[in-house]
Design a protein that fits this description.
five-stranded parallel sheet; elongated; Rossmann fold; alpha/beta; 7 helices
Length: 176
C-alpha cells in the first residue's frame, strides 16, 4: 500500500511552496484526495506530474457554454477554467451545433435556455445526436422552470437557477 503525502510533505517533494501546491490541487492539475479535511497526494502521481505525463483521475473536463449574454458566458468560462475545465463558448444554439458537428468533444453542455421552449427542445435533440454521452445542465429563470418539463425527454438534466452563481458551477464540475 503506497504512503500518501500531506500538502507540506508533497510540496517539499516537488520543491515548491505549499501555497503553490494548493493552487495546483484546486485547479485539478495535480490529483489529490481530501481525507478528513486534509489533502493527501500519491507520490507516484507526483512523479508522473513532474515528468509531464498524464495522471490518473486528472482528466480535463470539456465544457460547451451556450449563452447569449457575453458577460455571463465569459464569467462561466472563467469559473470553468479556474476549476481545470476547458470551455468552448457559443452565443447561439446554431453556433453550438456547428462546434458539435465539427467534432468538438464535450463532457458537459451548460445551456442558457432561450425564450422559446420549442427552440430549446430542437437544440437539445440535435446536441444529443452529436454527443449522446455528455451531460446537460440548463440555466433557467425560476419562473420558467415549470414550462421546461418536456425537455426532460432528452434524458437526465441538471437545472440551474439563473443567475448562476460560482458555487453552483463548482459543484456541477465536481459531478462530472
Amino acid at each position: 500500500m503506497p504512503t500518501y503525502l500531506n500538502i507540506r510533505d508533497a510540496a517539499d517533494y516537488l520543491g515548491i511552496s505549499p501555497h503553490t501546491l494548493y493552487k495546483l490541487v484546486e485547479r485539478r492539475e495535480v490529483p489529490a484526495a481530501k481525507v478528513g479535511g486534509s489533502w493527501r497526494l500519491n507520490p507516484e502521481a507526483l512523479d508522473a506530474f513532474l515528468q509531464g505525463g498524464t495522471t490518473r483521475g486528472a482528466k480535463t473536463i470539456e465544457i460547451l457554454i451556450v449563452e447569449q449574454d457575453d458577460s455571463v458566458r465569459r464569467d462561466l468560462a472563467s469559473i470553468a477554467m479556474s476549476r481545470g475545465a476547458r470551455p468552448q463558448m457559443a452565443s447561439t444554439s446554431e453556433d453550438a451545433l456547428l462546434l458539435l458537428s465539427g467534432g468538438a468533444s464535450v463532457d458537459l453542455i451548460l445551456c442558457g435556455v432561450s425564450a422559446d421552449p420549442v427552440e430549446a427542445d430542437a437544440f437539445l435533440q440535435r446536441a444529443k445526436e452529436h454527443c449522446a454521452d455528455c451531460r446537460i445542465a440548463l440555466m433557467v429563470e425560476p419562473e420558467r422552470a415549470a414550462d421546461l418539463g418536456g425537455l426532460m425527454r432528452h434524458g437526465p438534466m441538471i437545472m440551474l437557477r439563473k443567475p448562476v452563481e460560482r458555487p453552483d458551477i463548482v459543484s456541477l464540475l465536481a459531478l462530472i
